[in-house]
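Worked example

This section walks through a single chain of length 346. The input is the sequence exactly as stored; nothing has been trimmed or padded.
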Amino acid sequence: MSGAIDVHAHLLLPALQEEVARRDPDGFAAANALDARRNGPESLAASGRMIGARIPLLTDPAARIAAMDEQGVAQQWVSPSPNHFHPWADEELGVWIAKEANRQIAAHVATAPDRLRGLGTVPLQHPSRLVECLDDAVLAHGLLGVEISSFAGDVELSDERLEPFWARAAELGAIVFLHPFGCSLDERLDRFYLSNTVGQPTENAVALSHLIFAGVLDRHPELRIVAAHGGGYLPTVIGRSDRAWAVRPEARGCAEPPSTYLRRLWFDTVVHDERTLRALVEVAGVDRVVLGSDFPFDMGLDDPVGFVQGAGLADADAVLSRTADALAAGVHGADAASAPVAEARA
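Given that input, the structure is written out below as tokens.
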């Protein structure tokens, strides 16, 4: 791929949301109430105005591509807005949501296959159905992989029930994009937009720590996990994890010091300051950092390419495109340019 590749860009699916609300109005209302408690009224109102103004960028491929051209981005990996995870949904509804989201994402990227690739989703709260939905995304719809949250109900990423999912993702070479939605600290973050500024990097750090300390990356070394928001707090405070591994017996579930696993993961560039980006490259390696923008949300990077170019990295081209291109090329069975777009599942 020639040109910058943005691996962190979102799609809003209004028709899907409407159908979820119709199928389970009580569950949908309860989830919205929880979201309101977590964010607080001021942030909820500001987010509503922000999203409302950006609906074309979130739904219209032509508006998306025009914005990409302005940013100097040649290709986006489009993933569902995380509010489409619906971790409260029962098994039947959760599987339907995932497969319908996969179908709609595939249809969106098929409008410009030379510019857009897709990431689907799975119902993380139902571990027994994850392989089925991962196959639906990658094999049935030609997507690069799936986006998952940092947890779903009682399911942490260290949960033994996820082992078949990790094994299948490794077998397919599928990209697993870790992007939190919500934070378990709940109302403690309900003001000053702490739900996002503190909540997102906290959830990234917790989820990655579950993966590392549980030995998931030891058992599945071929996994290709890309962490949003630069992996949150974990990469810059990884020394504390190494110390725990050295002195605490309950922290020895992984074979090597936790810092070594940063070079088995990938991280996007949505860290918002050049010093942090340089630190991320130093601890993870320049070949483990990929361009991201969080397009088109206000907490994203307005000039993602310029941000990377201005950080003084030794190999900015690896971050801008080369590493992401290699990741996409390694997905078995995914071809967004020619994959059939399946009919909607009722």
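What to look for: The chain has a mean pLDDT of 93.
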